[in-house]
Write a structure and sequence with these properties.
The protein is α/β, with parallel strands linked by helices and 297 residues long. The chain is built from 11 helices and 7 strands. Strands 2-1-7-6-5-4-3 form a 7-stranded parallel beta sheet.
């Protein structure tokens, strides 16, 4: 009798464990399906991208992780890595051009650079157009004692040497607004008004600005007002938490949902790229959170 009861108890225990396992598997499948659905269905009002340099992750892995979140673009990819994007069915909404010879500190505001910059950027324009991409980043360079007016005049001369070529190739040169207070001391294109005056001086629809929200909050504030006033000159946006350039969550001073709403209300059709340096160990979780904050309902 005792053996019979033991056998019945064992059968019940096995059956209970089987049911629990089935239920757990079903729950796991439902959670996984829910996560996948959330990841792949962004709301569509904002076109999202992410800057590759911020992550200690190989580009191929970043493409896969970003794609799962729902992104289709990785910012600041050099032409030598375009094949990685293509393999993952991704684009770059902003092509990199910050090489060892030309970049943030050494740009179009020096006439002595123009010959080499013309050669350099025509090559990058060709590579950008050949890949089917449209935006190519560029920089003013550092002041080194130069006045703002001379900087505009010199940048205009240099950019006008290549802007016609960019127009023919359907590529837009995009100069980034950066702060000269914390990160890029002496950089000349450090205020929205200066960048806008340069756009007017160059006089081409294929030269615009990259409005970096992090940098411009540090330099001048009035982020939403400047977006509303000058949006026609902005081809692209970057994010970042202030201060510190980390996650765009409640630890910093900017309220990104309101900023995204302002961008959307201008009729902007380009990309907003996350350009914060994750402080948390799970970098992709930080990226997913940031995209969620910026994804307007």
């Amino acid at each position: 009798m005792h053996q019979e009861n033991s056998r019945r108890d064992m059968i019940k225990k096995v059956a209970t464990m089987a049911l629990a396992s089935t239920a757990l598997s079903s729950l796991s499948n439902r959670v996984s399906a829910h996560d996948q659905a959330v990841d792949e269905k962004l709301k569509g009002k904002i076109n999202h991208s992410v800057c590759a340099w911020c992550y200690n992750i190989p580009l191929d892995e970043l493409c896969k992780a970003a794609k799962k979140i729902g992104l289709h673009s990785i910012d600041l990819v050099d032409p030598k890595d375009f094949d990685v994007l293509k393999k993952n069915d991704m684009i770059t909404a902003m092509v990199a051009s910050n090489g060892p010879d030309w970049g943030i500190t050494k740009g179009f505001n020096k006439v002595a650079h123009h010959d080499k910059l013309e050669e350099y950027f025509k090559h990058y324009i060709d590579e950008t157009a050949k890949a089917g991409f449209t935006n190519l980043i560029c920089f003013s360079g550092n002041r080194e004692g130069m006045s703002d007016q001379e900087g505009i005049e010199n940048c205009t001369k240099g950019l006008q040497r290549i802007i016609g070529y960019a127009e023919k190739k359907k590529v837009t040169l995009v100069m980034e607004l950066l702060n000269s207070k914390v990160n890029h001391h002496d950089y000349q294109c450090d205020h929205t008004a200066w960048g806008v005056e340069l756009c007017k001086s160059v006089g081409s629809p294929n030269f615009k600005l990259l409005y970096d929200i992090y940098h411009m909050q540090i330099m001048e504030g009035d982020v939403i007002s400047n977006i509303r006033q000058y949006h026609e000159y902005f081809a692209h946006y970057h994010t970042g938490g202030v201060p510190g350039r980390h996650e765009i969550d409640e630890t910093q001073e900017l309220y990104y949902p309101a900023i995204m709403k302002a961008i959307y209300e201008t009729g902007f059709k380009g990309h907003v790229a996350q350009e914060f340096i994750p402080a948390h160990k799970d970098q992709i979780a930080s990226l997913r959170q940031a995209v969620g904050i910026c994804d307007l309902a």
